[in-house]
């Protein structure tokens, strides 16, 4: 029996594959559980249409994310903080602080989960952090931590 897999099935195949299975396995397990459908011509056309729509959606998301990274990378984000004489901060600058500053300057919605690494800045200086968005889009954010002028 030829079936079209609707979901990934361990040791059998991946979603979208057409495989040969025994009649009993297909009728008694795969089809009732919703893992597969009988590979008829109508099902194949329907699945191919869904696959094309999904690829188009992923492509649009990737383009949107690339524009977002381009917008974010244009700026160096300056954060003013209280610090001691030797450049050590009173407290720390975290991913949430950096994300908030990016939103203020770039006017884009930025999620702190997009940082590829943990952020816990405890001294004055320039830092470069990797960001990672969906669809394999990556970029960098430059953050400049400067002391507040005390006069």
UniProtKB/TrEMBL annotation:
Keyword Iron among record annotations: no
Protein keywords: Ribonucleoprotein, Ribosomal protein, RNA-binding, rRNA-binding
GO MF annotations in UniProt: rRNA binding; structural constituent of ribosome
One GO cellular component term noted in the UniProt record for this chain: ribonucleoprotein complex
Residue span, Ribosomal protein L9 domain: 13-40
Keyword Coiled coil: no
Matches recorded under Pfam families: Ribosomal_L9_C (PF03948), Ribosomal_L9_N (PF01281)
GO biological process, one term: translation
Function description: Binds to the 23S rRNA.
Family according to the record: Belongs to the bacterial ribosomal protein bL9 family.
Protein name: Large ribosomal subunit protein bL9
Organism for this UniProt entry: Tepiditoga spiralis
